[in-house]
Amino acid sequence: MKTLKIIVLTATLLAGATAAYASPHSDRGGINALSALSDAQYATVLKVNPGEARSLKIDTDTAALQALISQNHAISATIAAQGYAPSDIIGITGTGSNITLYAL
């Protein structure tokens, strides 16, 4: 029984470390990306899983992000062409013209 607990604990820790490593969110890039969004003409949209979405929602003011996207017609058209709406977007990374948006 003790061996099973050790295996379960190890698997849980590895899964958490893997999820943290795979997270698309960068604490350093979020603020710069938000300020760059008003001038951006294009952004790539990536779909995230629920675990990554929780991480992004904690560190991102989703309402402000979606409002900025709605105000930028070029970005709105870009994400619509990729099959998403501003309400689908929950996170952002990047700077300048290299912006990535994350959708759930």
Q: What does this 3D model show about the protein?
A:
By secondary structure, this protein is an alpha+beta fold. The protein has one domain (25-103). 57% of the residues lie in helices and 16% in strands. It is built from 5 helices and 3 strands; from the N terminus they run ααβαααββ. It has a 3-stranded mixed sheet. A hairpin with a 2-residue loop joins β2 and β3.
Draw up the topology in text.
Elements: H1 2-22, H2 29-37, E1 44-47, H3 50-59, H4 62-71, H5 73-81, E2 89-95, E3 98-103
Parallel strand pairs: 1-3
Antiparallel strand pairs: 2-3
Major β-sheet profile: 3 strands, mixed
Which series of helices and strands comes N to C?
HHEHHHEE
Distance between the termini: 39 Å
How many helices? The count is 5
The structural class is alpha+beta
Which terms would index this structure?
104 residues; 57% helix; 16% strand; 3-stranded mixed beta sheet; alpha+beta
